[in-house]
Amino acid sequence: MKVHLPSSRILAVNSRALTEQRIYLCPGCLHITHSFAGRHSSSTARYPPVRRRNQSTWAQAVSTVQSVLDNGSAKDSIFTGVSVDPLRVVGQEMKFLTRNIQQLLGSGHPILDTVAKYYTHSEGKHIRPLLVLLMSRATSLIPQEPKRTASRSTTSIDTPISPTSILSDVNPSPPAYILGDSDILPSQRRLAEITELIHTASLLHDDVIDHSVSRRSSPSANISFGNKMAVLAGDFLLGRASVALARLRDAEVIELLATVIANLVEGEFMQLKNTVLDEAKPVWTEETLAYYLQKTYLKSASLISKSCRAAALLGQHSPEVVEAAYSYGRNLGLAFQLVDDMLDYTISGEELGKPAGADLELGLATAPLLFAWKENEDLGVLVGRKFSADGDVQMVRQAIANNLRALLTLFRPEISYRVAAASSKHELWRRSTRTRLNTPSADFPTRKLKRD
Question: What is the CATH number of domain 11-436?
């Protein structure tokens, strides 16, 4: 399935700080092209770096993944020539998302109310709730599982389980929205909002841990309000997410999303070490990459995969569909993080909307360095001391820039595998796509599908 996304741009990377030659890495295919001062190839002439429109990390990653998928897998005749805007498919639901999230976070304490909602005012792409809504819609025509349908509760997702006098959690602005006819259930819409709450809480906490100074091109919450306020606001988001989750009244979904919160913390602890043993002079092994992928799953892919699975569960679907939804989300989340790690080495902080190269400064070895280390054993010493010596960070960045072509030869197969594994689950879309592609969400204009 080909997703319509903003055009790829060519991203500049200095291969040597004081030479005229430049290397350009295309986010759409992870291929390299060269140019010299005053002269560009035809592709860089079309999209010069200085004119590059800001594009989210996710959009750049998806553009790359789409190219890998297009180049590495056979076309499915059902999607030939079809381009679909994902926002068009669930536009009605996305239209209300930010407002509903802000209302879920309403607090009688004015400072807490401000800090808790701080990141909801920034230009986030809401990719995780978007995926939940897309999965909900993709599976809506698949037959339901009788056993789960029989146990489905008809109670409102806003109805408290315990008496409100005992809860002592009065929200001055609870969500109260009305949508037209939709094949996405209210519980699935609420799940999308819960997913974004958990993700935003993790951003608040991560920015404190990493001493971040910016987020989404604005000062980070810890800079604007202080570490204490940022941590407390993150805790408040997790609390409100937990309450909303409980009111879905589905024990398996509650279990899934609760473990996501534990996964995020466990992944953060794993990130304190670059290798399993955290030795001073580590040697690269396959276990090194396995450790990184497990950490990445816990920190990045767990929320995506388990929320996709939860969407299928709330839709009352069979174990086969539920498992396919989970596998799709897991591999998509891993593929995104792999590309995101590479972009951190190849574009500026202004383009990313967050500080570029921060991982190295924090002593973290991400995918590009791990693949470079596989070819250059001398980098193991730098990994062992977490790039703490003078010049370590610059040495690593230079090594990656100078060997970018060879690095991508190692790097692309891992991305391709994850993309292929995710795309293999598109059978969910096959069963309902003829209806979906011709049923855009309300409030978004109907238009002819673009054809290549």
Answer: 1.10.600.10
